[in-house]
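Weekly modeling sync, notes
Attendees: AB, CL, MP (scribe)

Item 1: holo prediction request
CL wants a bound-state model with LARABZUK before deciding which constructs to order. AB pointed out that an apo prediction alone won't tell us much about the pocket. Agreed to run with the ligand included and paste results into these notes for async review.

Input as submitted:
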Amino acid sequence: MSSHLERILANTRIEVSARKAAAEFAALEEAAAAHTPRGFARALRERAETGPAVIAELKKASPSKGLIRAEFEPVALGTELEAAGAACLSVLTDEVFFLGGLENLRRVSAAVKIPCLRKDFMVEPFQVLEARAAGADAILLIMAALGDEDLRVLRDTARTYGLDVLCEVHDQEELDRALQLDCECVGVNSRNLKTFDVSIERAVELASQLPDGVVRVAESGIASRQDVENLRVAGFDAFLIGETLMRQPSPGAMLRELIG
Ligand SMILES: O=C(O)c1ccccc1NCC(=O)[C@H](O)[C@H](O)COP(=O)(O)O
């Protein structure tokens, strides 16, 4: 039986091929040229000098939790979280499993000043062009999703388009591969994307293996100020937080509580 991740990737490949076949490349290149990337890694590094740098995730639903936030207005959420002190935003663009979309990214990116991550399952370079055209400043690359050669091609494409890369790992072997890719940010996802189990202890264990030169991001399952503090003490600079913010009537108030 295929894993959760494999099912998502299979669907992503079908959707990307369809969008690519229908795409107007000249219009996409024009939209991409109209957006100047805002330095995702730099924003995180600068914020981490004075406090926890949070990447606040706009997440309406997820495969592991189903619907998380019924009333989901991406621009209102993005501007509220920016005002509350988010260093960056993560905007889910997968439609089927997360009820996100590229249109959300386009609208949110235009409404905020802080950098935005296109949060999706990147499987081919066309998605990098889409990302910048929709106003992304960074993309996510998931080590568990692709082989090294595909990852290198995607990283090179991101560099060509001036986008930073958050490279996501879940264990030591993936971390060793990720460090070869030489990305600006390395994220340790406490969620196993094959089983959906979440263990923050895993991120804490891997923290000491992350080199100084990268922005160290802890991802998933962060539910309290104590979690942020524990991860910070372990060595993380930045914290990707979705569900805990999205479940609150006021995500901005929750973010203030998390970062103090
Ligand atoms: O969140 C999921 O259920 C999920 C399932 C399959 C692949 C990826 C998934 N999540 C992506 C993420 O990494 C999280 O959205 C992100 O780290 C924020 O996590 P959380 O704060 O726990 O919402």
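Recorded for review: The radius of gyration is 17 Å.
Action items: CL to compare against the apo run; MP to circulate these notes.
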